């Protein structure tokens, strides 16, 4: 007997939306605050008239149906086609939003073809939402690097909506940091808002990134955005989502930033950090003291951060588990690498088992990366001793952390 389809009628209707490719892009201007002229347009999705007209309803239905990535790619493809055929000044950029869970998947051929052509003709800014960047960091970082190789810029979207994700900002290394509308429209001078703004300003100043303020609806919002260091803006004050403008639109004279790419090597933290500082022979006990000093810094921080610990072929005992559980309870992401480690080390500590052939087996490392700082203790086994050193240069510590990203599990 054929089993009847008992899905809700709305979900059946949603299948028809995808089957008929009934997705239409609309575009909202992104302007330079200095002259309030567009530097580009962000593509947003609209469905047919009815319950799936708005993007939120579309993606909610796609998530229920397990087809969110399919919808994401369909929206990106439609936006790219419309933008390529529009007679706009070639310096105007297309901002396109992709969920990190979609970005780590292999795109369909039509999307590759569309964006290969588009990036050769116009600037493209790939927007990544900050809330889930740590879900599959290895594959996400590889996708980001691939996008950069295709000349796309990277924007980190909705920064401030979830302050705990700020720690991942240095790893993504965005060209553009988009402050969430809640930051611009907040009337409260809260500690959380200050924490976000200080971290974003520090990253922008250090790397040369631009800050884009979302949700600008009034002149007061413009003043707030400028006071927070924003040079780009987006919101109803400058234009609501709609069709692309005519070809004679006056675009801004201000260019989009492009930060310097970080080196992502397939080596180890020791090989990255040893040339940058003094390295001396030490004992296991003395190295433990060095590592504890880095962990003490993690205990003192009140900001989002990432602690990565490599125990090599050593053990991970209950005392270490208690220390790191305490850190995860303070909002710090903790990763522990080592041989014979389970993926679940208790609490929210993520274990990464190492192969016996991995050179990390012979190293010990503690890397602490925050949105505004970085410190490390590192060592490599040499006979009965360890060659060890410390580093407090954030850029070098971030580069060392990136050598481990490809080992992180989903």
From TrEMBL:
Q: What is the lineage of its organism?
A: Bacteria, Bacillati, Actinomycetota, Actinomycetes, Micromonosporales
Q: Which InterPro entries match?
A: Cyclic-di-GMP_PDE-like, EAL_dom, EAL_sf
Domain spans labelled EAL: 1-255
The domain of life is Bacteria
Please report the name of this protein according to its UniProt entry. Answer: EAL domain-containing protein
SUPFAM superfamilies from the UniProt entry: EAL domain-like (SSF141868)
């Amino acid at each position: 007997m054929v089993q009847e389809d008992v899905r809700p009628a709305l979900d059946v209707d949603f299948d028809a939306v995808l089957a008929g490719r009934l997705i239409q892009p609309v575009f909202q201007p992104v302007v330079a605050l200095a002259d309030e002229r567009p530097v580009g347009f962000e593509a947003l999705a609209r469905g047919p008239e009815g319950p799936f007209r708005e993007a939120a309803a579309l993606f909610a239905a796609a998530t229920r149906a397990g087809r969110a990535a399919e919808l994401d790619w369909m929206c990106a493809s439609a936006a790219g086609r419309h933008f390529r055929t529009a007679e706009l000044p070639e310096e105007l950029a297309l901002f396109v939003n992709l969920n990190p869970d979609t970005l780590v998947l292999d795109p369909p051929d039509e999307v590759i073809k569309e964006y290969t052509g588009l990036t050769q003709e116009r600037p493209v800014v790939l927007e990544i939402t900050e809330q889930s960047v740590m879900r599959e960091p290895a594959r996400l970082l590889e996708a980001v690097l691939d996008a950069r190789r295709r000349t796309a810029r990277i924007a980190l979207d909705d920064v401030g909506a979830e302050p705990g994700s700020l720690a991942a900002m240095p790893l993504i290394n965005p060209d553009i940091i988009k402050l969430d509308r809640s930051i611009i429209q907040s009337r409260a001078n809260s500690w959380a808002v200050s924490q976000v703004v200080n971290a974003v300003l520090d990253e922008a100043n250090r790397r040369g990134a631009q800050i884009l303020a979302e949700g600008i609806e009034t002149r007061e919002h413009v003043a707030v955005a400028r006071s927070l260091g924003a040079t780009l803006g987006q919101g109803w004050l400058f234009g609501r989502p709609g069709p692309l403008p005519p070809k004679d639109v006056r675009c801004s004279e201000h260019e989009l930033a492009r930060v310097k790419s970080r080196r992502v090597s397939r080596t180890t933290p020791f090989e990255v950090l040893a040339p940058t500082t003094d390295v001396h022979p030490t004992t296991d006990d003395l190295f433990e003291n060095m590592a504890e000093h880095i962990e003490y810094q993690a205990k003192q921080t009140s900001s989002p951060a990432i602690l990565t610990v490599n125990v090599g072929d050593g053990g991970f005992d209950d005392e270490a588990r208690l220390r790191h559980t305490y850190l995860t309870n303070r909002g710090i992401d903790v990763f522990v690498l080592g041989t014979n480690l389970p993926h679940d080390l208790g609490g929210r500590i993520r274990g990464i088992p190492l192969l016996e052939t991995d050179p990390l087996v012979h190293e010990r490392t503690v890397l602490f990366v925050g949105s505004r700082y970085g410190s490390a203790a590192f060592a490599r086994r040499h006979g009965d001793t360890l060659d060890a050193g410390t580093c407090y240069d954030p850029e070098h510590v971030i580069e060392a952390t990136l050598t481990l990203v490809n080992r992180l599990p989903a």
